[in-house]
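Tutorial handout. Part one gives the primary structure; part two gives the three-dimensional structure as tokens.
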Amino acid sequence: MGNPSVARVGDAVPTASKHLLGPSGRTFAVFWLSIALCALWLLLTLHDLHAVRHLPELPPLRPDAPEPDVTIVMAVRDDVQHVADSVERLLAQQHVRMQLVVVNDRSQDGTGMVLDSLARRFPRLRIVTVDELPPDWLGKSHALHQATAGISTRWLLFTDGDAHLSPDALARAIDAAEQANAQHVSLLPTHRDTTFLGRAGLLAFQLVVQRRVAEVNAQKQRGFVGTGAFNLVRTEAYRAIGGHLPLRLEVVDDVWLGFLLHRHGFRSRVWFAPRDFAIDWGATPRALVRVVEKNMFAVLRYRTWLAALAVTAAFALVLGSLAAPWYAGAIGWWPAASYLATGIPGALLARRMQWNPLAGLLVPLSRLLLPIALLNSTWVTLWQGGVRWRGTFYPLAQLRRGQVR
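Part two.
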């Protein structure tokens, strides 16, 4: 008879330790996975809440602010239906000494005739016509580069035809930039004619942007940003980075303009202007996926492995969190609830955009549009072997070769 107080090897594993072995090892792993997911989403929620709450709105124009001189630059192609309205809206800017330069970029639909007629009516309007695109240039970058030749005003504003600005928005942005000693300003818009679900998708995208904006607006700037519909830059800073020449093959030229300015030591600032700046962009979830089709893979510098990793990680984190109650039991409600809480910053941002906060509460679901859009952008670009934009096809090898380094 053995001593009953002495257990055999293998029989003395404490009950608590058995959770680390065999089937109970899975319980241990699931527990800590749930804790990690819960912590991830709570930290993200707190970060986004801070970013949205501290997002500065475009300040009012000071009564004693001087009238700045500025050139507005816009490139158009085959936009005969909207170009007259776009030009007249931009010329309505007040409290600035301005000229408007519109580039007719190889239009075939009568846009040129409309612009010529407008130029006869408005002395502050100058038309630049591009008939042929030179090698190793994207159409838009080439158009903007051509438009800025010989300009001597203190400020340049690059904008798009769908941008709707309040009459004093440009003057206020320049005054705010001068007060902040900034050489580059981007304004964040609201969106016109959007559906409820479209707003939910836009808010998911906007929360990603807010994280970058917080880095740019930090006391010591830590990141860069740019918005194609409102990129305001000091002319001397624009000249110092080489204009659009380094950006000649950048699909997201607006963002990389911000990068070059940051790299050269110029200061950027971003203001939120939902009451003063609106664009037509991503009205529905489907439209949102389509409008970023050429951009999202480009943002990742056309790195297929990185796109695959980002898509996989995004789906795994989101779906893994939502499904946690089914595979993790009671503790799985922690990551699920924490993930659903990421809609709170979305609701706050919706309120600041004067939208229904319920659209923001849908952000935990609409966030899936981000990996879907990236997957679509990557697939279409690889399948085509490049990007088709403004009537021209640009091979992927050419775009990769022409990236800003």
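Part three, for discussion. The chain has two domains: 69-287, 290-400. The CA atoms of residues 80 and 111 lie 4 Å apart.
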